[in-house]
Amino acid sequence: ARDERKAPAPEAPQEGPALIGKSPTMQRLFRTLGRVAASDLAVLITGESGSGKEVVARAVHAKSRRHDRPFVAVNMAAIPPELAEAELFGHEKGAFTGADRARGGLFEQAHGGTLFLDEIGDMPMPLQTKLLRVLEDGVIYRLGGRRPIRVNVRLIAATHQNLARKVAEGAFREDLYYRLNVIPVHVPPLRERREDIPLLAEHWLAHACRALGFAPPPIEPAAMEVLVHYDWPGNVRELRNVMHRLAVLVPGPSITAADVALALGHAEMTEPRETVADAVSGAARRYLAQLGGADRGELYRDILAQVEPALLSVVLEHTRGHQLRAARLLGVNRNTLRSMLRRHGLDPSTFK
């Protein structure tokens, strides 16, 4: 039997600037995005995992004439193959066991706006055929339905895979590849734009500290050197998570090279690893110092607000965004985990 799943609602733009960078590669990307946004053609964004492909897609949407219409994002790798067609195209009542009512899919939700299909390389071959038909005709059919539904959607796809190789291997339709690859956009890995790392590090540190309610500590030059020379296999996503971890766990008045090495998991480069109790003590001291002579505050609530998102981020990294596994590791049920994620503005899909 199939389980009916509720399609995700159109996502609101994430907080913060869409793109950050002063490197020549990023300046070229900015110029390309300006030209891409002015058209309505399909876009294929390539780049390594964590490099910011969805951020680029959101930037294209924000600069396009569809900017005030829905932006709907979905990760094809996160949808079980047997549910993918219903997620994209919707279904009619009775289309499968559990479908007790009709439901529109993501194409209908994105009508007038932009549909972002992340990890398009993981789309099942039968669904590729149906997607090609939608791109050519602008018409969808719900699962179990015969009524054509016209949709006006700009499609942006992304992948970390080599789609040309998948075409050669017979794992991806050649005609769909060329239909999507009308305007190719490549997002460079972070190691190829190291001059952007200080800007990004300071941005994400300030972002995390602002959410936690205190001023960001300065990053010492030696610490910045460690950040700049690290290869960042997880790209911008990894840098963001490291800076969030530093915001919570650094006990001192500034971020040192040893702090960065610890946050990166390079314990051999540092003093003995501090305990969780040490980290909480440091955060409490910072909080009390900012209170000055005041004797009233919300120390207990604020310390929990610092520790909880850091813990959730570490667990989601470990489970690659899998919520059920994360809930089991934490010892909470899935509804509690979802409530915690909403409270801290954490999106599990960004950890995949």
Topology:
Layout: H1 24-37, E1 43-46, H2 53-63, E2 71-75, H3 81-89, H4 106-109, E3 114-118, H5 125-137, E4 139-140, E5 149-150, E6 154-159, H6 163-168, H7 174-180, E7 183-186, H8 197-212, H9 221-229, H10 235-249, H11 257-263, H12 276-291, H13 299-319, H14 323-330, H15 334-344
Parallel strand pairs: 1-6, 1-7, 2-3, 3-6
Antiparallel strand pairs: 4-5
Defining key terms:
352 residues; alpha/beta; Rossmann fold; Arc Repressor Mutant, subunit A; five-stranded parallel sheet
Structure description:
It is a single chain. The protein has 352 residues and is an alpha/beta fold. It has 2 domains: 24-188, P-loop containing nucleotide triphosphate hydrolases (Rossmann fold, 3-Layer(aba) Sandwich), CATH 3.40.50; 191-351, Orthogonal Bundle (Arc Repressor Mutant, subunit A), CATH 1.10.10.60. Helices cover 47% and strands 8% of the residues. It contains 15 helices and 7 strands. It has helices at 24-37, 53-63, 81-89, 106-109, 125-137, 163-168, 174-180, 197-212, 221-229, 235-249, 257-263, 276-291, 299-319, 323-330, 334-344; strands at residues 43-46, 71-75, 114-118, 139-140, 149-150, 154-159, 183-186. It has a 5-stranded parallel beta sheet with strand order 2-3-6-1-7. Strands 4-5 form a two-stranded antiparallel sheet. It is globular. The two termini are 27 Å apart.
